[in-house]
Amino acid sequence: MCGIVGILGNSPAVPRMMESLKRLEYRGYDSAGVATVTSAGLNRRRAPGKLSALSDVLAAAPLEGDSGIGHTRWATHGEPTENNAHPHQTERVAIVHNGIIENFKSLKNELSGTGATFEGDTDTEVVARLLTRYLEDGNAPRDAFQATLARLEGAFALCVLINGEENLMFGAREGSPLVVGTGQGENFLGSDAMALAGLSNQLIYLEDGDWAEITRDTVQIFDRNNTAVQRPVSISQVAATMIDKGNHRHFMQKEIYEQPTVVAQALGRYLDPINGRVKLPDAPFDLATIPKITLVACGTSFYAAQVARYWIEKIARVPVDVDIASEFRYRDPVYAENGLSIFISQSGETMDTLAALRHARAAGQHIASIVNVLGSTMARESDMVLPIHAGPEVGVASTKAFTCQLSVLAAFAVQLASAKGRIDDAAVAAYVAELEHAPTLMAKILRKDEEIEAIAQDISGARDILFVGRGIYFPIAMEGALKLKEISYIHAEGYAAGELKHGPIALIDENVPVIGIAPNDDLSGKTISNLQEIMARKGKVILLSDTDSTAADNMYAHFQMPTAGDLITPILYALPVQLLAYYAAVEKGTDVDMPRNLAKSVTVE
Ligand code: G6P
Q1: Alpha-carbon dihedral of residues 86, 87, 88, 91, nearest 10 degrees?
Q2: CA of 345 to the centre of ligand 1 (A)
Q3: Torsion 81-85-88-91 (CA) sign
Q4: Which ligand 1 atom is nearest residue 297's CA?
């Protein structure tokens, strides 16, 4: 969601904050703002829209000061106008916030009743006014901040500066992540390691209920009972140079083309090709005794979970439930005793997935998480963590995280099958060899990107596009549709190929392109028959398949895929659908890395 940075530094804060906000823009880009504190008081600059608009404002009206707070916003309460942009400031305080203050209406009524006025519609401004009220009542800054926190309900991360206090910053975490970065005579706050890359690599992750009082030389952390606590220091793996587009036009493009490398990197952590074995991190439970697996995730990670269900059920013969995280706990799921619940999340912070994890933990499940961000909340709250090692993913549309999630899930399915005695060592070794081959085949597909680019340009004018597949390729069809709609704004849906005739086929005419995902396997004949039904109704079929071109007779286009083993084929088919979405969006001229209304990390329910 929103991105936060706070600096108590020894050099001008604004350029450092702007660099950090650039790295945080993936969390939201509806508006941005910075505030600094100097002996002259608090000052801020804000602008609706992307960070570049704030840069223009700062160029026209620079802001001095070595200490400051900054924010990129993904709007929850109130439109993305300048008045609603953070920092929210009164004569006494400046505040940036990520999350939602659920009781803001009653607090606003209370404050309005005693004379406070509000310039915008945000829940955050209420926090600024409340803290101001406690300071005006004569409380010392720490007492006023504590009193404010005690009144807030909801999920939030806050970072606060106080007028007249040039060497003081407060931070608080309840539900939304916040991390302290320590330096030499300077200290920092940020939403995540990305915010602090280039500022500090010594990170202290706050826990829910924690708040911090920070000066240039000291960091004091307190828990929700205001008891001083020590939290471990971890070393950030994220270097500022990793968050760079290089020669690519977009982060998404860079991340698509990185996939052979990062998938090889991820697999390198899980496979022992010499001995033909899978190595998983230690777990405080025995895979052999797990009776059932529950997979929970959102967005692209949810489609990775859906693919994994096919693998786990087919190879390991363990029953799998798959749920969208935002629905999971409200359906009162039936857990199996001693069951394993696995939470898949690139960020490791998605609020719905985290809430589902806590629900499963409260129900006594074993908890595993598959995350990209190592210090993330989900990783910290899991019994077993399976990192995907994709490196920072900046493009809002997830690409390399998806294929790395799939790679880790495939390795997991093989290990589970082996632990359950469903497959012998020779079968494990064969699967390991197949997985090892995936990066080479991925590179081969990416070398033919011009063909996909031409198809994407051709269909980019369509109003609706359908993606169809059977079996394990059904979730790939849904992921293809999600990618396309989120960055090109073309309406797209993914369907099980056999389901088309039960309704969606009514949409087909000569203007509707249909992407058929049909590797040459025991189901491809049926999928190709469904594609023929579409062609009979003048639909433009684009076939993604390793089948020979005769099967593609009369089809509008055929992208020839390499032939591969069953296990890795779904991973490979993720690539052409990503490329299709990417090049369609480029053709349409949309903002590929920052599509409208979206954010990469969604820390509200
Ligand atoms: C957002 C992003 C999606 C992502 C989803 C889940 O909606 O735009 O790309 O798949 O969140 O994120 P997670 O970090 O939990 O994988």
Answers
A1: -160
A2: 7
A3: negative
A4: 15
499-554 pLDDT, tens digit each = 888 888 888 888 999 999 999 988 888 888 888 888 888 889 999 999 877 777 78
Mutate which of 176, 302, 386, 601 for ligand 1 pocket (most atoms within 8 A of beta carbon):
601
How confident is the model at residue 560, as a pLDDT?
A: 94
Q: Which DSSP string do the residues of 30-85 spell out, in sequence order? A: SEEEEEEEETTEEEEEEEESSHHHHHHHHHHS----SEEEEEEE--SSS-SSTTTS
Res 452 pLDDT > 80 = yes
Structure tokens at 316: 């390991």
Q: How far is the CA of 540 from the centre of ligand 1 (A)?
A: 31
φ/ψ of residue 139, rounded to 5? -75, 145
3-state SS class at 494: strand
Q: Which two tokens stand for residue 331?
A: 């359906």
In b/e form, how buried is each residue of 261-270, taking b as 16+ CB within 10 angstroms? ebbbbbbebb
In the DSSP assignment, the letter for residue 508 is: -
In this predicted structure, what is the pLDDT of residue 314? 97
Give residue-wise pLDDT tens across range 51-68: 999 999 999 999 999 999
User: How is residue 493 written in tokens?
Assistant: 């849906």
The residues, any chain, with a CB within 8 Å of residue 119's CB and separated by 6 or more, are 83, 125
CA 424 vs CA 407, 415, 526: distances in Å? 20, 11, 32
Give catalytic residue positions: 2, 600
Ligand 1 pocket residue status of 345, Cβ below 6 Å: yes
Q: Is 241 exposed, middle or buried (0-12, 13-18, 19+ CB in 10 A)?
A: exposed
pLDDT at residue 180, rounded to an integer: 97
Instruction: Quote the ligand 1 centre to 268 CA distance (angstroms).
Output: 25
Owner of token pair 């911090």:
212
Structure tokens at 452: 């996909």
Residue with structure tokens 């020839």? 560
What is residue 458's three-state secondary structure? helix
Q: What average pLDDT does range 76-86 have in this prediction?
A: 85
Contact 602 CB / ligand 1 (< 6 Å): yes
Q: What amino acid occupies position 77?
A: H
Ligand 1 near 376 CB (within 6 A): no
Q: Which of 303, 261, 286, 289 is nearest to 409 (CA)?
A: 303
CA–CA separation, 385 and 525 (whole Å): 39
- Per-residue pLDDT of 210-232, as tens digits, reads 999 999 999 999 999 999 999 99
Q: pLDDT tier at 604 (50, 70, 90 boundaries)?
A: low
Minimal-distance CA residue to ligand 1 atom 2: 600
CA of 328 to the centre of ligand 1 (A): 16
The pLDDT, as a whole number, for residue 524 is: 85
